[in-house]
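Q: Could you fold this chain for me?
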Amino acid sequence: MSRLTLSLTALVALAGNLRAAEPPKVEIVAHRGASFDAPENTVASMKLAWEQKADVGELDVFLSRDGKIVVIHDPTTRRTTGVDGKVAEMTLAELRKLDAGKWKNEKFAGERIPTLEEILATVPPGKRLFIEVKCGPEIVPELDRVLKASRLKPEQTVVISFSADVVAAVKKARPDLPAYWVVSLVGKRTARELIDKAKQIGADGLDLSANPAVLDKAFAEQVKSAGLRLYVWTVNDVALARKMIEAGVEGITTDRPGWLREQLAP
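A: Sure. Below is the predicted structure, expressed as structure tokens.
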């Protein structure tokens, strides 16, 4: 065998080893949009998330008094608008009068509490949206209407919720919509327990708090072997993100999508 052949063989082997050493691919989910840099749950925040190359955007929704789906995390408007009001007791027109950007930075003054339709319109081809339902199953008929009227495919709009009842209601009304059950890994929550409940309500995946004391490789493998997708929230620490990737999660929710992707780059 010639020296050239040996050299080529060595290079091929080295390239294979480098590929093997690459970290597994993981989706970056923008928590309430790029909420570290822009006011959470606004059109500005979500557009910035796409600019920062997030794979998935995440937002929170409630129903207004007149039955419209609005994008906001808290049941009241006080924290993000400075005006104290209950979302469920206000009409869309009343909610739209509030400034949801100024609290973050003056340059975002004038940002409004958006409707779900407005955020859906920002989603680029090939990207997805996690829609966290913060109220109850009463939102499902309007959610169904809004999603059917959008240009997005069902697989691009994933419904997530801490409420098992909401997940079950979504899957009953729209079996074609992916739905993940959101769970905080506090206390002694076993993978088997979560899998059994997820199967009972028809969930397609679990979206868990990033707790490395509970979520390790064995835990992740058990969840994925059961046919469930596995995501974690909300990670703004590189070391923790790497632990979650090593455990085998498929996606990481973060307030800083662009920054975290850069930090995790090989």
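A (continued): The beta strands are 27-31, 56-63, 69-71, 128-133, 157-161, 179-183, 205-209, 229-233, 251-254.
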